[in-house]
Amino acid sequence: MTKPNIPVEKNQLIEVTFEDLTHDGAGVAKISGYPLFVPRALPGETGKIKVVKTKKNFGYGRLLEITEESQDRAEPPCPIFERCGGCQLQHLSYEGQLKQKEKYVREVLARIGGLTQVKVHPTIGMDEPWRYRNKAQVPVGEDRGKIIAGFYAERSHRIVDMPSCAIQHELNDDVVQVVKKIAKKYGIRGYDDEKHKGTLRHIVSRHGKTTDELMVVLVTKGKELPNKKNIIEDIRNELPNVKSIVQNMNPKRTNVIFGDKTEVLWGTEVIHDYIGNIKFAISARSFYQVNPVQTKVLYEKALEYADLSGSETVIDAYCGIGTISLFLAKQAKKVLGVEIVPEAISDAKKNAKLNGIENVDFAVGEAEKVMPWWYAQGVRPEVVVVDPPRKGCDESLLETMVNMNPERIVYVSCNPSTLARDLKYLQANGYETKEVQPVDMFPQTNHVECVSQIVLKEEAGTQ
Ligand code: SAH
Question: How far is 15 from 238, CA to CA, in rounded Å?
């Protein structure tokens, strides 16, 4: 097949109709088959654009004017939507976002996994798809001697000051503004990452949705924090929900947020939150899902797909702080969790204790190495749950899982592409994907989480 010639030129002004939306929230218009990607345009819309870049097989445009608007278009409530880059889909109605995510999952499963017959349910969304985040991590800097905290401007290290974030819990917003104000009052210097100078690098705020407890973390370059006592007092006065004030020290030249040392300045070392009736202790650096409302929805779906009767041994691979493990434990005989980060496993063990759950065991290590070891020990789980990072499961892990011959596999995924690849492997090795449920953990952004139920083919035949 010959490649089409490039039908447009850079800087050309044209009117186009958009047919599709990319995963990143750009509208797609085709000129004689040549796709042009235009940020913030929606399918069904017609608009005037300027061509800004042409490559061999596709190009980019900038939207100048919408001449025919989609019914799905929404007015982004956030004044910095176009500059921030944290959200990609605020200009699309929430209903449109949910449909878009379902469509994307279906397309990727078909294209990468060859799974055209799998049932993909409509995305489960939130009733209130704003202000859902329970954690803010905001870089601090200075602008002409004035302390600022916000987000990095696109493709740069320049911090843009941010008064509020529309997907952040209000109390996290308050923490950022209050700390900024207090830092100004005491002349605390914002960090300059080029010169590696200044004091305050990041403001981190964590909120327990069900307990309304707040943790304030001040990430500083060194141990020194002038006026520490006054700062603590002011924070407590201005933010009555604060239960924990913590200083983390990060002396390195790095864009990693946290350093190795953490010191409690006031209050407790952890705050708490519940997902369902399970209580979690959250420390400054613990991994914890950022959308607690939808986490419950996701885990309940995982539990439903695990279909436990109380007699099963379950493996929870990539278990983090044991959230899914503890959720499953009450309905299983035994749960084995594995996770690569030692601190997460230490949290998992503490959380098990906190809830009086005894039928769980946690191991530190690479899931792809620990699983074969368990297999060699004779572990034969009836159900395996996996919740891998974006790169998906290691093939050797899938192989071991198949050898273990569980009746059901529950696959929680934050990346439909690697999910599709792994489901294809399972499909070729005796398993069948029954259904896939997208859950909207990150409204306004292009991220989509899925939970899938996969069953042994023989079993599927007898049902
Ligand atoms: N199930 C947890 C965490 C899921 S995130 C929850 O819902 O909260 C994925 C987890 O996999 C992270 O905690 C990450 O540290 C861990 N991880 C990444 N690579 C791993 C590997 N090779 N083996 C085991 N765990 C791994």
Answer: 53
What's the average model confidence in pLDDT over 71-88?
A: 92
Nearest Cα residue to 177 out of 212, 196, 150? 150
pTM of the model: 0.92
Cβ(234)–Cβ(201) below 8 Å: no
Domains of the chain are 13-68 (2.40.50.140), 101-126+291-460 (3.40.50.150), 135-271 (2.40.50.1070)
Output the ligand 1 site: residues, CB below 6 A.
287, 289, 318-320, 323-324, 338-341, 344, 366-368, 387-389
For 414-446, give the DSSP string. S-HHHHHHHHHHHHHTTEEEEEEEEE-SSTTSS
Taking the centre of ligand 1 as the mean of its atom positions, its distance from the CA of residue 333, in whole angstroms, is 23
Burial class (CB in 10 A: 0-12, 13-18, 19+), 123: buried
- Cα–chain-centroid distance for residue 98? 16
- Each residue's pLDDT tens digit, 272-307: 999 999 999 999 998 899 999 999 999 999 999 999
- CA-CA distance, 416 to 106, in Å (whole number)? 9
Give the mean model confidence (pLDDT) for residues 316-322: 95
Kindly tell me the burial class for residue 272, based on how many C-beta atoms sit within 10 Å of its own C-beta (0-12, 13-18, 19 or more): middle
Section 303-330 average pLDDT: 96
At 317, list the tokens: 């691979």
φ, ψ (nearest 5 deg) of residue 198:
105, 180
Q: 318 alpha carbon to ligand 1 midpoint, in Å?
A: 4
Q: pLDDT at position 2, please?
A: 42
- How many residues are given for the chain? 463
Alpha-carbon dihedral 54, 60, 61, 63, rounded to 10 degrees? 180
pLDDT in tens, 126-170: 999 999 999 999 999 999 999 999 998 877 888 999 999 999 999
First to last CA, the chain: 46
List the structure tokens of 203.
Answer: 């403001």
Residue with tokens 């929430």: 94
Looking up tokens 């409690």, which residue turns up?
264
Q: Candidates 135, 298, 318: which one to mutate for ligand 1, based on the most atoms within 8 Å of Cβ? A: 318
Ligand 1: centre distance to CA 68 (Å) = 45
- Residues 6+ positions from 184 with CB-CB distance below 8 Å: 146, 147
Cβ-based neighbours of 215, under 8 Å, separated by 6 or more:
205, 206, 207, 242, 243, 244, 245, 246, 270, 271, 282, 284
Average pLDDT on 95-111 reads 97
